Amino acid sequence: MKPRTAIPEGLDQKERELFLTLDPKHLPRHIAIIMDGNGRWARGRHLPRIAGHRSGVESVRSTCETAARIGIPNLTLYAFSAENWKRRPKTEVGFLMKLLVTYLKQEVATLNKNNIRLEYIGRKHELPEDVQATMAWAREATARNTGMTLTLALNYGARSELADAFSAIVESAAKNGGLEHLRRKGIDEDAISRHLYTAHLPDPDLVIRTSGEMRLSNFLLWQLAYSEIYVTDVLWPDFRGKHLLEAIADFQKRERRFGGLGKT
Ligand code: IPE
Ligand code: IPE
Ligand code: MG
After folding, report:
1. Please, what CATH class does the domain formed by 27-159+204-252 belong to?
2. Which is catalytic among the residues 23, 38, 74, 84?
3. Which atom of ligand 2 is nearest to the CA of 34?
4. Could you give the 3-state DSSP secondary structure of residue 200?
5. 211-232 pLDDT per residue, tens
């Protein structure tokens, strides 16, 4: 008889049912989410776009809690792209910055309760100083947690991350007097991975995008090379822990081949 899987504490009824359909030994080690559709969610309710962003905070909480409870080691959320920063009206960007500060201040308690450690990827130094200060405070306040690592992608762009990685490789070679060595040996894949903002993370096994858009929008282009892609029509403010479990159930049905021949 199959041994009964222990159901993690804190899941609601629907989540418990979905959890029982999963193979707990084959959970993704890293899930990345493109949280999209806030504006459309608001428009559907005749509300301003910012109401969608505000509502998305509850989705972040639910998703993080469920991921931590079922034992996902790494969750990365695309919160704000480098292009969002440049291409959206100042008022919307300003609101998103304020929302981020409010989120961090109010959610540190929830993160600590769930043993979640906070990290960031993206060009932090371009963000307003008060935002950077709150980010540093929240990271420090959760630094001793040993459960899931939650990485927020803020002012993040995969192409600028790669450009930064190449610059860092050259920079460190120059510092160590190794430019000639670098020229002879060239740059290998390991060196690139080690100089990305995500050097501390395994590549995502699963990437989820909400709101039905079938594109990566400059998210983790290097790291997603062999990730399974799951797109749902659910708009981010409607996304909850149960949707995460549905995505994981779908992931567990996939056959990952990594360029090989697989089982058939
Ligand atoms: C995602 O929602 C949040 C951010 C990009 C900050 P959007 O604001 O992109 O919402 P839509 O795509 O316009 O519906
Ligand atoms: C991607 O969503 C960025 C985030 C979710 C933070 P966008 O809404 O910015 O992407 P596009 O513009 O539709 O590609
Ligand atoms: Mg969008």
Report:
1. alpha beta
2. 84
3. 5
4. coil
5. 999 999 999 999 999 999 999 9
